[in-house]
Amino acid sequence: MKNTKIRKSTKKLGKPGYSKKSGLPAGSLVHVGQVKTEGTYIDLIEYSPTNIAEKKNLSLKEAQEYLDAPGMKWLRVTGLQNTEIIGELGKTYGLHPLFLEDILNTSQRPKLEIMEDHVFFTMKTLGFSADKGVVSDQISFVLRENLLMSFHESDLDIFLPLYDRMNIETSRIRNNGVDFLFYALIDIIVDNYFSVVEAIADMIDTVEDRISSEPDENVLDAIQQIRKELLFLKKTVFPIREGLNTLIRNDIPLIDPKQVKYLRDVYDHLMHIYETIETYRELNTGLKEVYLSALSNKMNQVMKTLTIIATIFIPLTFIVGIYGMNFRVFPELNWKYGYLFVWLVMLAIVAYMLFRFKKKKWL
To answer: What pLDDT score does 1 carry?
Structure first.
């Protein structure tokens, strides 16, 4: 088990900039979310079983010229803040304004739309940061005949292994259509969800250890943080599962039937992740109950200790109260060993009471 630090939750609801769309007509191109790149960059990878070529930082005009170019192409757009470039690309490649709006809205729920000549699919990549918890980036795909377009919120390292695979002539990516590349990108994103789920599991283990040893006020905040993270994961995973199920069950001309088995494998992974998330949600709910029970037990122990102390002093207070009365005649006052005798009686009472408490296992 990793030593995951319990920290105060900083996750907030909502996305910055969402109010910019208030009052605007549907399909308005407004970037909603954080700016994670310095600009909007367009890259292109042309590939075939025998050749691969990558062109970086294309101009909008150069990107538009590749619409009818032969061969398989992956057009990658990184950075969503330049709405003019996104809008012009959409016009060139025949994307509906509502799809462009979804691309620019980084709080968009994952969704799938199947059109006559293209498939639109938007989803989220997930990662885990020790300081921020679960972090996400939106990525949108447009699958056309021999062309895959992807719109990235930022440049992510999770796709580096895929770039390496594309440079191998015998790789399945090079020897299949862009529909296989479409699957490969989704598969990498979903596989990365497992690492996020494992990080959440470490957080739950850490909270369990803290509750078992010495629960403090930070534990409840950690439980609430885990609850938010799990709800966000569920909100992210469930719609993707629906989208993949639609891709699997429908006969889509742009997707080769032999690729369906690969998409079904990704669907199985998502089911596994979804079931794990539900299990962790139940565990986290149980942690709150265990935490409150631990606090109650701790308070009971304190009250038990105070009660025992008070019980011991009740007879001693009674004896002292008797000899504190202002009467002139007390037989013991003139007795040489009276003071010592009273002390011995009180100590004997204390010893007897401690013996009885121990015998009844109250101590």
So the answer is: 45
Name the pTM for this structure: 0.79
CB 261 within 8 A of CB 128: no
Q: Match 């011995």 to its residue by tokens.
A: 344
> What are the structural domains, with CATH classification, of the chain?
18-294 (3.30.460.20), 297-359 (1.20.58.340)
Q: How many residues does the chain have?
A: 363
Query: Quick one: tokens of 164?
Result: 């390496």
282 DSSP β-pair partners: none
CA 197 – CA 274 distance, rounded (Å): 10
Sign (positive or negative) of CA dihedral 5, 7, 13, 16: negative
Rounded to whole angstroms, the Cα distance separating 118 from 14 reads 31
Q: What does the pLDDT look like over 237-285, one tens digit per residue?
A: 989 988 999 999 888 889 988 889 999 999 999 999 999 999 999 888 8
Burial of 252 (C-beta count, 10 Å sphere; 0-12/13-18/19+): middle
Q: And the tokens for 256?
A: 């080769």
**Residue 122 to residues 80, 83, 221, 243, 363: CA-CA distances in angstroms?**
14, 17, 32, 9, 63
Q: Which two tokens stand for residue 84?
A: 């003019």
Res. 21: pLDDT tops 90: no
CA angle, residues 230, 234, 240, in degrees to nearest 5: 150
At residue 16 the predicted structure's pLDDT band, cuts being 50, 70 and 90, is: low
The rounded distance, in Å, linking the Cα atoms of 254 and 14 is 35
Burial track 200-239 (b if 16+ CB lie within 10 A, e otherwise): bbebbebbbebbeeebeeebbebbebbbebbebbbebbeb
Q: Could you tell me the two tokens for 193?
A: 């969800």
pLDDT of residue 193: 94
Q: What are the Cα distances from residue 310, in Å, to 25, 313, 317, 350?
A: 73, 5, 10, 12
The residue behind tokens 């369906």 is 260
122-131 in b/e form (b: 16+ CB < 10 A) is bbbbbbbeee
